[in-house]
Amino acid sequence: xxxxxxxxxxxxxxxxxxxxxxxxxxxxxxxxxxxxxxxxxxxxxxxxxxxxxxxxxxxxxxxxxxxxxxxxxxxxxxxxxxxxxxxxxxxxxxxxxxxxxxxxxxxxxxxxxxxxxxxxxxxxxxxxxxxxxxxx
Length: 136
Fold this sequence. Notes:
The protein is α+β, with helices and mostly antiparallel strands.
């Protein structure tokens, strides 16, 4: 006889609980914690921190956290443009609150690149700009 107790039937209602996004609010000017934040502001802060943290550089973060911009300097502009698009999207999509990264506009000038894009989250959308390069 095969046990049947561990299987959810079609007639069972399963409620999905949404995890809170409440976190510490960081002041970029003073590099200090200045309170708490939640919702869209918390997602904005998380996206900024993801794009400021080089992936695999800090053992405190999992291998899924951060961005991989190392190795883009000095490469062909077409390669940088395509890879920057892919790497920014991959980094941000690791956050469960972020649903999409849209309207990516990348400009490459010399050894610097700039990306502007719209982040779509479960709390709303916001614009971001990220620069990559020696002087950025």
